[in-house]
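Below is a filled-in request sheet from our internal design queue. Each sheet records the structural input a requester submitted and the sequence that came back. We keep these sheets so that new team members can see what a complete request looks like end to end.

REQUESTER: design group, bay 2
PRIORITY: normal
MODE: inverse folding
CHAIN LENGTH: 231
BACKBONE (tokenized):
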């Protein structure tokens, strides 16, 4: 079979499977955004360590290294591009405020315009994630020709940050009992812009990764409580 199947890519494959499951769960029935976030968090956990695991194998061929870069980006597009957009779609389906607005409170033209704008935001977010990942692939390939080793600084917000950003948005319901659908769309728009910005962000070391894993764990527990209490 073509492809690579050793331990260097197992976390990437798990991330993709988690993301695919999250997409299906989010869009099932009327929509399940909170359940989708659990899979987003798990994908983020896998991504936090897939690079370190891959670099443990010192005798990787050039093809194996390039395959790892490509499959990681493809997985990231699904996990941190498509899945957050699907979670947003699930929020639209379950939003009391949008249902109230679209149920006769707006004219036909205004309602269609509102729906178009909201869905356009999600599509632009996915597009920004794809561009960010493609740019990373190109610059990473050029960098490795001259530097080698792991990258120390990112240009633009890494798409994997979505694993912490969007679950945090859903947790706003703990603080303010409100429909956060429009807030989610606003955050998606800003996040997509930051993907394409030229801000420079230091790559987190082991301590930084552990802090992010802890933050993700806290988010997962709080989302679990939120979902259980709501159910």
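RETURNED SEQUENCE:
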């Amino acid at each position: 079979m073509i492809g690579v199947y050793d331990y260097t890519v197992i976390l990437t494959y798990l991330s993709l499977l988690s993301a695919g499951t999250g997409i299906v769960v989010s869009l099932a029935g009327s929509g399940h955004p909170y359940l989708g976030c659990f899979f987003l968090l798990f994908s983020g956990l896998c991504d936090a360590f897939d690079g370190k695991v891959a670099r443990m194998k010192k005798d990787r061929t050039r093809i194996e290294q390039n395959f790892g870069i490509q499959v990681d980006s493809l997985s990231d597009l699904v996990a941190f591009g498509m899945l957050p957009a699907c979670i947003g779609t699930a929020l639209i389906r379950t939003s009391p405020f949008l249902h109230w607005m679209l149920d006769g409170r707006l004219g036909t033209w205004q309602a269609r315009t509102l729906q178009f704008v909201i869905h356009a935001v999600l599509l632009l977010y996915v597009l920004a994630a794809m561009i960010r990942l493609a740019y990373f692939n190109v610059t990473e390939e050029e960098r490795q020709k001259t530097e080698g080793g792991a990258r120390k600084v990112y240009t633009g917000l890494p798409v994997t940050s979505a694993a912490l950003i969007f679950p945090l948005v859903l947790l706003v319901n703990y603080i303010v009992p409100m429909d956060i659908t429009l807030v989610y769309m606003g955050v998606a728009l800003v996040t997509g812009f930051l993907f394409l910005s030229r801000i420079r962000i230091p790559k987190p070391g082991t301590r930084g990764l552990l802090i992010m894993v802890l933050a993700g764990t806290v988010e997962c527990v709080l989302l679990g409580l939120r979902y259980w209490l709501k159910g």
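SHEET NOTES:
- The chain has a mean pLDDT of 87.
- Residues 102 and 148 are 54 Å apart (CA to CA).
FILED BY: M.R.
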